[in-house]
Design a protein that fits this description.
The complex is a heterodimer. Chain A is α/β, with parallel strands linked by helices. Helix content of chain A is about 30%, strand content about 25%. Chain A has a single domain (about 5-250), classed as Rossmann fold. Chain A has helices at about 40-50, 70-75, 95-100, 115-125, 140-155, 170-185, 195-200, 220, 225-230, and strands at about 5-10, 15-25, 30-35, 55-60, 65, 80, 160-165, 185-190, 205-210, 210-215, 235-240, 245-250. In chain A, helix 4 (about 115-125) packs across helix 5. The longest helix of chain A has 14 residues, at about 140-155. Chain B has one domain: ABC transporter involved in vitamin B12 uptake, BtuC, CATH 1.10.3470.10. Chain B has helices at about 1-10, 25-45, 50-60, 75-105, 115-130, 140-165, 170-195, 205-210, 220-235, 240-245, 250-255, 260-280, 285-300, 300-325, 335-359. The longest helix of chain B is centred in the first third of the chain and has 32 residues, at about 75-105. Classes of the chains: A alpha/beta, B mainly alpha. At the A-B interface, helix 2, strand 6, helix 3 and helix 4 of A face helix 1, helix 10 and helix 11 of B. Chain A: This is ABC transporter ATP-binding protein. Chain A: Pfam families: ABC_tran. Chain A: Keywords: ATP-binding, Nucleotide-binding, Transport. Chain A: GO terms for molecular function: ATP binding; ATP hydrolysis activity.
Chain lengths: ~260, ~350
């Protein structure tokens, strides 16, 4: 579903964290949010999955403002993979994935055959079929993220929201997870630290800096040496990826762009 | 595609997981165990009564017949049956409330006793007695209301202290709960001593350690109703409780109104604790141990965990009370003494395991 973030402003304990943010992800489009730490990426995403309430502006998913929907209605449209890690309570993999059915269920309703099928299919999609009985807390970081993605898929959402899904994963698991995402062909909003990953996975990128969108466009349009210097404070060349043809950012790890000189 | 995925999934799903019995079977076993424990609890004590006589006394009691001459009907029907039933009700309630509290604070070290909620409830109840508000009808409604208010207030205080500086770590929460609990218990002690002989109902030991010695038929109705309603309220929220384990943001994304769920859990936890404390004092550690033990058997899914924890809590407290009554020949121990003797080492073990994992 087309998702439009319109003139979003979020204020947390008196401080305006993001303002005037406009981001549109078309049907089936992967929209990437990039920016330095504290630029407001997570805050924007949290308003999409209704963890935070916008101070001004709105988030429209399909034809409706998410705040006009009930919590369950919103969760049937939007599924999210937040950064939090959860806690160890002896849940099995299948139980975690089955949580994705929560917005479809009334109080006291059990899981029916359709729920079981959806859960099995979600596990299959992330390559975890047959692992349903394992303890969630015993999984590796990569497996864990795949299971959490399966939980989001079990929500059968029109829109996926992912906040740094590749954090703490090794390169192979990063690549696998992002490839899995591309296969989904669902409207996706994803925050990513890794600009090269963002350049290859996202259809469009939105660069956040100090709570505002400072650039939007295709990765090729957005990721320029000038922007990287200004927003991220790094010197970099942007070349063509020899294998994929995507923009590839080659950072100069030796000399950062001069910022305010830190006080020793 | 879906059918294929399912059959293949199930076929392969048998490996690499702990074996888990079906919740229905576990509940059936626990149900039988509860009947056996209740019967044993009524049979054994200073006077032994054979099981056959117990059940015929129960039948006579239920049907309202007079005591058969030459039997132990009076002991059985007036003393031991209500006491065994109260143990079951309180145990079930503590198991449920511990499970809910652990999900609410997302911390398996939580329990109404450790979190200071029971201490708040005790203080509320004692304050009401000293101020003469305790009467409140035969059901003990006034006492329970005061205990509920105390429970809610202390829970809110512990919550606020533990959350200062954002987020909460397990140890911080337990320390806040134990600290505030001790503080409130000090007050309770003081009030009980001050009241002296005028405070006829119960001793300080009753409120601070817990006891089932005051069980009567008249005091059973309110806690039974509270436990049944609490169980239904929690069962209705079982999926939401699961979601809450993953974190507030995940729960929100799964369509759970987290703020409202927290409020409901706060009230249900405090209400149950208040009612239980007003009839049995502050019995520690049952709410901590029961959910842990049950998770090991049926896993962490609250749809299965809640009924199992309620039943197991009932069985456990009936057995513990039987031990407390019969361990010493000349006197009986308060049930809370026995739960502390079992529960405190269990807590130390859990803390140790947890800290080890964090480092």
């Amino acid at each position: 579903m087309r998702t439009a973030i319109e003139d979003l402003q979020v204020t947390l304990s008196g401080r305006t964290v993001v303002s005037g943010v406009r981001i549109v992800a078309g049907e089936g489009e992967v929209a990437g949010l990039v920016g330095p730490n504290g630029s407001g990426k997570s805050t924007v995403l949290r308003t999409v999955y209704r963890h935070l309430r916008p101070h001004a502006g709105r988030v429209v998913v399909g034809d409706r403002d998410v705040r006009e929907l009930t919590a369950a209605e919103a969760a049937r449209r939007v599924a999210a993979l937040p950064q939090e890690r959860g806690s160890d309570f002896e849940l099995s993999v299948r139980e975690v994935v089955a949580m994705g059915r929560t917005p479809y269920k009334r109080a006291f309703a059990g899981d029916d055959g359709r729920d079981a099928a959806v859960v099995a299919e979600a596990l299959e999609q992330v390559g975890m079929a047959g692992e349903g009985r394992r303890r969630f807390s015993a999984l590796s970081g990569g497996e864990r993220q795949r299971v959490l993605l399966a939980r989001a898929l079990a929500q059968d959402p029109s829109v996926l929201v992912l906040d740094e899904p590749t954090n703490h994963l090794d390169v192979r698991h990063q690549v696998e997870l992002l490839a899995l995402l591309r296969q989904q062909r669902r409207t996706t909003l994803i925050a990513l630290h890794d600009l090269n990953a963002a350049a290859s996975v996202c259809d469009r990128l939105h660069v956040l800096h100090r709570g505002a969108v400072v650039a939007s466009g295709t990765p090729r349009e957005v990721l320029t040496p000038a922007l990287l210097a200004e927003v991220f404070g790094v010197r970099a060349a942007v070349v063509e990826h020899p294998l994929t043809g995507d923009p590839l950012i080659a950072f100069d790890h030796r000399s950062p762009v001069a910022r305010e000189v830190p006080v020793a | 595609m879906t059918a294929l995925a399912t059959s293949r999934g199930e076929e392969r799903e048998e490996r690499d997981g702990p074996w888990r019995p079906a919740a229905g079977q576990v509940c059936a076993v626990l149900g039988v165990a509860l009947l056996v424990a209740l019967t044993a609890s009524v049979c054994l004590g200073s006077t032994r009564v054979p099981p056959g006589e117990v059940w015929s006394a129960v039948v006579r009691g239920v049907s309202g017949q007079d005591a058969a001459p030459g039997t132990q009907d009076l002991i059985v029907w007036r003393l031991r049956v209500p006491r065994a039933l109260l143990a079951a009700v309180v145990g079930a309630g503590l198991g449920l409330v511990g499970t809910a509290a652990q999900a609410l604070v997302r911390n398996p070290l939580a329990d109404p006793y450790l979190l200071g909620i029971s201490s708040g409830a005790s203080l509320g109840a004692v304050a009401a007695l000293v101020l003469g508000l305790g009467a409140g009808g035969a059901l003990g409604l006034g006492l329970s209301a005061a205990a509920f208010a105390g429970a809610l207030a202390s829970f809110a205080l512990v919550w606020a202290v533990a959350r200062r500086g954002g987020g909460f770590r397990p140890l911080r929460l337990v320390l806040a709960g134990v600290g505030i609990g001790q503080f409130l218990s000090g007050f309770t002690h003081y009030l009980v001593l001050q009241a002296g002989d005028e405070q006829q109902t119960h001793s300080a030991l009753f409120w601070l350690m817990g006891s089932l010695g005051g069980a009567q038929w008249a005091t059973l109705a309110l806690p039974s109703a509270a436990v049944v309603l609490g169980a239904l309220a929690l069962q209705a929220k079982a999926r939401a409780l699961n979601a809450l384990l993953m974190g507030d943001e995940t729960a929100a994304a799964l369509g759970v109104d987290v703020a409202r769920l927290r409020r409901v859990l706060f009230v249900v936890t405090s209400l149950l604790t208040g009612v239980l404390v007003s009839v049995s004092g502050a019995i520690g550690f049952v709410g901590l141990m029961v959910p842990h033990a049950c998770r090991m058997v049926v896993g962490g899914d609250h749809r299965r965990l809640l009924p199992v924890a309620g039943l197991f809590g009932a069985v456990l407290l009936v057995v513990v009370d039987l031990v407390a009554r019969t361990a010493l020949t000349d006197q009986e121990l308060p049930v809370g003494v026995v739960t502390s003797l079992i529960g405190a080492p269990a807590l130390l073990y859990l803390l140790d395991r947890r800290l080890e994992r964090e480092h």
